[in-house]
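re: the backbone from monday

yeah here it is again, tokenized this time
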């Protein structure tokens, strides 16, 4: 007769132990009165079975399998007294751990709920009708994320953690092939990374063949010292972004020459307007720009993207030259082959370093400084080019955890939450 109630409360696993079960409401709370069938008990001190019944003691256990209302198991627990050693003890409790008032079901449900990157300790506490501190205690007691073994290809990047860490940026190690976080390190500082890698066995480090990183010198120095046989590849996105920054700075410089009120050509206001309105033409891939007619309110006309680009490049020769050079590098980045890229890359470096504009000469020195790493970024693994793309996507999830989290005041807890929520395969401690 109690089957429906037992199934609803997710207590099927102890169905055979229940002698009596009744439910009632107390305001918004659901109270479940339970009495268990008497079992054979032995004294936990002397193991004697010469015991006698002592008393009943009511024990309250939070059992939040119904998220809409707080659910309390009011367990009528038997207490016994050993006739041999006079020790008093309680009968076995199948609902919760000793000295805890949260059921096993609620305990596991809390941990499962925290696997979602958007779920915080506070909203988990509200859902399961426990305190935020209880949720944090459960998490800290159950989750201890260990570093994964180093794989063949490692992506390394940083994430901002100043509010939950004494260092401004934490360092994330990521497995390019399995798309799992290897570890989250407290800081990206060079001496800390060297010390961290030095504690890993040489046999494990020898398995690493490639490190993928952005153009952060500390990463390169630490990896060269600790992984002398591994190749270093710089993420192509960061090189393109640096070049786009140069393109943007030069466009703004040219645009400001034609600002209204300054001396300039006859149609100076139109030049300024077009360079400002269609700024994205200089950064976006031309083939990705809308291919239909684009409205230009100032001219009261509709132009095709090719007409707009032609107009923009006719404004200034330096601007045109910079754009063409940028496009040449972009084509190299898209089409070059790892085995044959050296000559083409060297030719581009010469063109940049010998340019009359300081910004391009500076970028040319950057290319020269990271030449080997740029070449290595063309390596293909499992039919895809190596990059930091996978770790960038993971970093957005980490930022979501940091942005939404409340109650995370220690880096250890933050690290465990990140690895537990993103990797999904972190075991729960017994």
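seq for it, each position gets an aa:
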């Amino acid at each position: 007769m109690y089957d429906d109630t037992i199934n609803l409360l997710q207590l099927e696993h102890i169905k055979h132990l229940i002698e009596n079960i009744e439910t009632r409401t107390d305001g918004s709370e659901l109270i479940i009165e339970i009495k268990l069938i008497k079992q054979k008990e032995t004294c936990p001190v002397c193991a004697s079975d010469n015991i006698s019944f002592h008393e009943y003691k009511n024990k309250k256990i939070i059992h939040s399998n119904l998220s809409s209302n707080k659910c309390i198991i009011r367990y009528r627990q038997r207490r016994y007294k050993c006739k041999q050693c006079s020790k008093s003890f309680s009968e076995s409790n199948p609902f919760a751990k000793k000295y805890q008032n949260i059921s096993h079901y609620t305990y596991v449900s809390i941990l499962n709920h925290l696997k979602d990157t958007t779920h915080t300790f506070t909203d988990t506490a509200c859902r399961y009708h426990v305190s935020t501190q209880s949720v944090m205690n459960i998490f800290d007691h159950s989750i201890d994320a260990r570093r994964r073994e180093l794989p063949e290809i490692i992506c390394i990047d940083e994430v901002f953690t100043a509010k939950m860490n004494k260092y401004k940026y934490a360092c994330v190690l990521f497995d390019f092939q399995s798309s799992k976080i290897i570890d989250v390190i407290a800081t990206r500082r060079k001496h800390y990374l060297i010390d961290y890698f030095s504690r890993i066995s040489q046999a494990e480090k020898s398995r690493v063949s490639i490190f993928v990183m952005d153009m952060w010198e500390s990463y390169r120095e630490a990896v060269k010292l600790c992984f002398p046989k591994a190749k270093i590849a710089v993420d192509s996105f960061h090189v393109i972004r640096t070049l786009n920054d140069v393109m943007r700075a030069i466009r703004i410089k040219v645009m400001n020459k034609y600002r209204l009120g300054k001396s300039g050509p006859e149609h100076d206001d139109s030049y300024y307007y077009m360079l400002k309105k269609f700024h994205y033409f200089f950064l976006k891939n031309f083939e990705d720009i809308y291919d239909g007619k684009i409205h230009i309110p100032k001219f009261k006309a509709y132009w095709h993207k090719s007409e707009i680009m032609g107009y923009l490049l006719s404004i200034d020769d330096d601007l045109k030259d910079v754009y063409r050079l940028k496009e040449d590098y972009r084509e190299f980045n898209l089409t070059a082959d790892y085995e044959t890229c050296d000559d083409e890359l060297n030719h581009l470096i010469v063109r940049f370093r010998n340019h009359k504009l300081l910004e391009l000469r500076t970028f040319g020195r950057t290319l020269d400084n990271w030449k080997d790493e740029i070449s290595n970024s063309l390596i293909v693994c499992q039919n895809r080019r190596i990059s930091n793309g996978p770790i960038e996507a993971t970093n957005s999830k980490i930022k979501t955890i940091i942005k939404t989290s409340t109650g995370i005041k220690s880096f250890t807890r933050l690290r465990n939450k990140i690895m537990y929520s993103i990797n999904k395969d972190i075991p729960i401690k017994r």
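The two ends are 34 Å apart (CA to CA). The mean pLDDT is 88.
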